[in-house]
Specification:
mainly alpha, Four Helix Bundle (Hemerythrin (Met), subunit A), 80% helix, 0% strand
C-alpha cells in the first residue's frame, strides 16, 4: 500500500518537475531585466507560481511521504526538512529555508512592481529546487525498486 503511494507521489513529482523546468527554460532565455514586456512578465509570474507550488509540494507532500514510508516520526516541518537532509536530498538546510522564505515572499506580494524584485532570486532558486527534486526522484525510485 505505501509503495503504491510512493509510486503515485513520484509521478506527481515528475509532473511538477516538468512544469517547473518549462518555466525555468522560458525565463532563463528572457534573462533578468529592468523592464519586462507583458508576455515576459507573464512567463516570470508563472515561474514564481510554479516555484511556490513546487517547494510546498516537495516539503509538505513528498518529504512527508518519505518519512511515512521509512517510519520516521511525523513531526514538524523542521523535522521533515531535517530528515530529508539526513537522506542527502539537499546539502544546505539554510538554503532550503531561504528557498521556503522566497515562496512566502511571492505568495504575499500583491503589487506587481514589487514582484519584479524577486525574479532573479526565483530564477536562481528554481535551478536549486530542480536539483533537489532530481535527487529526491532518484531516492524514491531506489525505494520503489
Amino acid at each position: 500500500m505505501m509503495k503504491e503511494k510512493l509510486a503515485q507521489d513520484l509521478q506527481l513529482l515528475e509532473k511538477q518537475m516538468r512544469w517547473l523546468e518549462l518555466s525555468y527554460q522560458q525565463c532563463s532565455s528572457i534573462g533578468i531585466k529592468k523592464q519586462y514586456s507583458i508576455e515576459e512578465f507573464g512567463y516570470y509570474e508563472t515561474l514564481c507560481s510554479r516555484y511556490s507550488r513546487g517547494i510546498d509540494f516537495l516539503i509538505r507532500k513528498i518529504f512527508r511521504t518519505l518519512d511515512e514510508y521509512e517510519f520516521e516520526n511525523q513531526g514538524t516541518l523542521i523535522d521533515v526538512v531535517n530528515n530529508a537532509h539526513k537522506r542527502n536530498l539537499f546539502q544546505d538546510i539554510d538554503q532550503l529555508r531561504l528557498m521556503k522564505d522566497m515562496r512566502n515572499t511571492i505568495v504575499h506580494e500583491y503589487i506587481e512592481d514589487h514582484l519584479v524584485d524577486v525574479f532573479e532570486a526565483v530564477l536562481e532558486y528554481s535551478g536549486s529546487l530542480m536539483g533537489i527534486m532530481k535527487n529526491t526522484k532518484k531516492y524514491m525510485a531506489k525505494l520503489i525498486g
